[in-house]
Write a structure and sequence with these properties.
Layout lengths: L2 H6 L1 H23 L3 H23 L8 H19 L4 H16 L12 H11 L7 H17 L3 H12 L9 H7 L16 H15 L1
Protein name: FANCG isoform 2
Organism: Pongo abelii (Sumatran orangutan)
InterPro entries: FANCG
Length: 215
C-alpha cells in the first residue's frame, strides 16, 4: 500500500464513498419526485453536497486508490449540474480537464507536462490507462460525458478522435461517428463500485439517441 493510501486512510475513503452514494440516492429521489419545488430543493442540495465532496477529494494529493471514487464524484456532479441547467457549460469542460490532470499527476513516468488542451489530455490519459486498470470504468464514464459535451458543441472531429482512441483503433481509421459510437464497448461496472447517476453504457445509449436526432 502506498504512503498516499495510508495517509488518506480506508475509513475516510469509506466515509466519502458513503456520502457519494447517499447524494446519488437523494438526486434519484429528486428526479422521481412529482413536486417541482421539492425536486428542485433535493437536487440542488445534492449538487452542493457533491461539489463539497469533490472539493475535499481534490484537496488531497492525487492517489490511484482514491481516483476511482474521485472520478465517479466528478461524473455525478457534472451529470446533475447538466440536468439542472438543461445543458452543458464551459465549467463542465474545466471539471473534466481537472480530472484528467489529476490522473496524470499519479504517473511520474510522463514527466513534466506542457500546457495541454482537452484533446491532448485525453490522448495522454488513455495511453496511461493501460497501467491503471482500476480507473478504466470511471474513465469511460468521464469519456462519455466528454463525448456528450463535444456533440452538443458540434466538435465532431474531436469526438471522432476520442471514440477512435477509446475503441483502440488507429487515428483516421473511421470518421463514421455512428459506427464509432456503436463500436465503443465500455467495460462492465464492478458490483461494488460507488453509485453513479449514469453508467458508461447508459451514456452511450444517450449519445446514440442524441446522434440519431441530428440526422
Amino acid at each position: 500500500m502506498s504512503r498516499q493510501t495510508t495517509s488518506v486512510g480506508s475509513s475516510c475513503l469509506d466515509l466519502w464513498r458513503e456520502k457519494n452514494d447517499r447524494l446519488v440516492r437523494q438526486a434519484e429521489v429528486a428526479q422521481n419526485s412529482g413536486l417541482t419545488l421539492r425536486r428542485q430543493h433535493l437536487a440542488q442540495d445534492a449538487l452542493e453536497g457533491l461539489r463539497g465532496l469533490l472539493h475535499s477529494l481534490q484537496g488531497l494529493p492525487a492517489a490511484i486508490p482514491v481516483l476511482p471514487l474521485e472520478l465517479t464524484v466528478t461524473c455525478n456532479f457534472i451529470i446533475l449540474r447538466a440536468s439542472l441547467a438543461q445543458g452543458f457549460t464551459e465549467d463542465q469542460a474545466q471539471d473534466i480537464q481537472r480530472s484528467l490532470e489529476r490522473v496524470l499527476e499519479t504517473q511520474e513516468q510522463w514527466g513534466p507536462r506542457l500546457e495541454q488542451g482537452l484533446r491532448e489530455l485525453w490522448d495522454s490519459v488513455l495511453r496511461a490507462s493501460c497501467l491503471l486498470p482500476e480507473l478504466l470504468s470511471a474513465l469511460h464514464r468521464l469519456a462519455g460525458l466528454q463525448a456528450a459535451l463535444w456533440l452538443s458543441a458540434d466538435r465532431l472531429g474531436d469526438l471522432a478522435l476520442l471514440l477512435e482512441t477509446l475503441n483502440g483503433s488507429q487515428s483516421g481509421a473511421s470518421k463514421d461517428l455512428l459506427l464509432l459510437l456503436k463500436t465503443w464497448s465500455p467495460p462492465a461496472e464492478e458490483l461494488d463500485a460507488p453509485l453513479t447517476l449514469q453508467d458508461a453504457q447508459g451514456l452511450k445509449d444517450v449519445l446514440l439517441t442524441a446522434f440519431a436526432y441530428r440526422q
